[in-house]
Design goal:
Layout lengths: L1 H19 L5 H19 L8 H34 L1 H6 L5 H28 L9 H24 L3 H17 L11 H8 L3 H11 L6 H31 L4
Length: 253
């Protein structure tokens, strides 16, 4: 266990040094995608223009909070794959604990989330919205982390073999974002409402967002989604351990 944590720690440390060693605006580049998505949602969505100032403030905070929570899910899914891609040459010649790729990805995703978390707090305070203090918020955050990591358990081994997976995952993530009511409110009755209803990510993101905003949320939803994420992660780990060594053996062939 100590070796696993140490390996994951050095993978994350090396990654941040390589990515931001020649930059002055490292935190800015982490925050930029969030601000782009918020700006795009505000520009495209016209329903907030005719609302009162109070409703517009709530709309902006919902966007910021929802997008940051979504990015935690997306990073937990994508970061282990990125670590696997960056360490392909190392994996061929050095025996590493394969679980360190998943742990390093989860740590990196959580670091990115903690960097963005003050933005949520500042937005809530700026717009005079009382932040939620539910004890279930940390549990919900971990469930989102587990859900993203469980998806990475299935996609990481394949991504080491096929570049198609690496190229397709960002497109799939963007499609899931559009299918999840993060950039918009759930419509009352149309095809988008049906997609939102049958999209499991909806029930993963929205309860945590509402808890942050001190809005009405069903605590049972957070508990249920957490249990589902843990079960899915256990299943994913079984698959990951069965396939990862085979994938590493075929690297470069």
């Amino acid at each position: 266990m100590n070796r696993l944590i140490t390996t994951a720690y050095y993978l994350v440390l090396r990654d941040y040094r390589v990515r931001f060693r020649r930059t002055y605006l490292s935190i800015f580049w982490i925050l930029l995608p969030m601000f782009v998505l918020v700006g795009l949602a505000l520009f495209v969505g016209g329903e907030a223009d005719s609302s009162s100032a109070e409703e517009q403030n709530k709309h902006i905070t919902k966007l910021i909070t929802g997008i940051i929570i979504w990015q935690l899910f997306a990073d937990a899914w994508l970061e282990p794959m990125r670590f696997g891609r960056r360490t392909k040459t190392v994996l061929r010649v050095v025996t590493l604990d394969e679980n360190s790729l998943l742990l390093a990805g989860a740590i990196s995703a959580m670091i990115n989330f903690l960097i963005k978390l003050p933005v949520i707090i500042i937005a809530l305070l700026w717009f005079n919205i009382t932040p939620g203090l539910s004890v279930l918020i940390p549990i919900g955050i971990m469930s989102i982390l587990f859900a993203g990591a469980s998806l990475s358990c299935f996609t990481l081994p394949i991504s080491l073999l096929l570049l198609d997976v690496r190229y397709s995952i960002p497109i799939i993530q963007f499609a899931l974002l559009l299918a999840t009511p993060v950039l918009y409110d759930i419509p009352t009755n149309n095809i988008i409402a049906n997609i939102n209803h049958y999209n499991p990510i909806t029930y993963l993101i929205l309860p945590i967002r509402n808890a942050f905003l001190n809005a009405s949320t069903e605590e049972s939803s957070i508990i249920f989604s957490s249990l589902a994420a843990i079960i899915f992660l256990v299943i994913g780990m079984y698959y990951y351990r069965a396939k990862i060594r085979l994938s590493i053996a075929y690297i470069g062939r």
